[in-house]
Amino acid sequence: MVIGLNSCKLGEVPGGMLALTDACNYLWQQQGKDGAWHSESHRLIAGGHALTPFLLWTLLEVPDSIYQADPTKVNAGMNYLREQLDQQEILGFADPDIMEYPNYSNAYALMLLATYGTVEDTLRITALQEYLLSEQFVESRGITSDQLIYGGWGFGEKLKYGQSGQVDLSHTRRVVQALKISGYPMDSLQHSL
């Protein structure tokens, strides 16, 4: 359960503020000893690469006036992400049989490192930007402007040149948002949707 802060004015909803506080408490209690969130019911997101950046970003976006996160837990989540980045500084491919939504995971990781990270995260931020840009469906991937998916992003499957996979608006939105938040010059972004 994640409550969107922009979906309503919580102060005007009976119990809205209490519900948000309770949701934050519940989600922080689900954090593992390794600093990650792991699904117990869906193997696809059990590794923590997809859930951790999504939940950590969501929880840190809750204003301190509503809920103050424990810095130890925040650091544990951030450190988990740093430790899980592979040699290319990306998430989502730890399990050779299951990818954990790499474009989505890396977009959230990029937003976290750019917003809440340290100067030591600079190279990670650049690597994540480069990875996400390499995943855009454009000419460099063999996708032409006459194809409907042109300019968007998919799940992050390791596709061959010219293969399109499936464009996904949610992934595209998150990647564009992450690039913007991380300071990537948006006027140089190719043909985004």
Radius of gyration: 17 Å
Give the integer mean of the pLDDT values.
Answer: 86
Percent helix range: 40-55%
Secondary structural class: mainly alpha
- The oligomeric state of the chains shown is single chain
Q: Give the topology string: H per helix, E per strand.
A: HHHHHH
| Tally of DSSP helical segments | 6
- Overall morphology: globular
Number of strands: 0
Residues in β-strands, percent: under 5%
* pLDDT < 50 stretches: 1-8
Largest sheet: none
Q: What distance separates the N and C termini?
A: 29 Å
General description of the model:
This protein has 193 residues and is an all-alpha fold. The chain is 41% helix and 0% strand. The radius of gyration is 17 Å and the shape is globular. The N terminus is likely disordered.
